[in-house]
Amino acid sequence: LEFRRVLFRSEVGPNDRVIDLGSGDGRMVIAAAKRGARAHGVEFNPQMVELSKKNAAAAGVAERATFQQGDLFAANLSGVTVVMLYLLPEMNLRLRPKFLDLPPGTRIVAHAFGMADWRPDESEMVEAERVFFWRVPAKVAGNWVITQPGRTLDVTLTQDFQKLGGTLNADAGSVDLLEPKLSGNAISFVIEDAGVKWRYSGQVSGKTIAGTASANHRSPVRWRARPTQ
Prior knowledge:
Number of helices: 4
Strand content: over 45%
Order of helices and strands: HEHEHEEHEEEEEEEEEEEE
Structural class: alpha+beta
Helix content: 10-25%
Largest sheet: 9 strands, antiparallel
């Protein structure tokens, strides 16, 4: 498998902390370390762990590529920005709830097998194998109040993993949001109100969403949203 292509595709770089769950002989961890990342492998087989350490030393990246023998389901994912997997589907599904609780924007890369109804953001054939890419989506489902200069709007957001939907709620009835999109903590949608299309884009940060909105040729304005409850 062309690991350099996978790492490039998942944007691994010097600012990343990578973990490979089921790291085998360590080749993915070592490849990530060569790109400047701090990378760690968790592997159940102690012989493979020792082989990985030797391979990392031979590649000159032992300081950035570390390995441990252990249970991948008990691995500490705190501070990790990229998770690599080459596991069977049932193992991916067992880990999925843990992944969905990671900070929005954390990248997940799985080789060969996906995660059932959590569809990947993208997938690609690398040599003869399918590789799946996700960014952990922010949790935005619920009712929000948007405030911007001269306007206050009541919006309901729905989500199915990273698939976003929603409505603008008004006295005259509900209107669907147009072009909704959620990628990590980046969110965007269009609200058509009184014949004017407002394009909203912003970032989710905990219980707040903030960004800019523009309509037609008007200058962009700042907007902020908070949950109603």
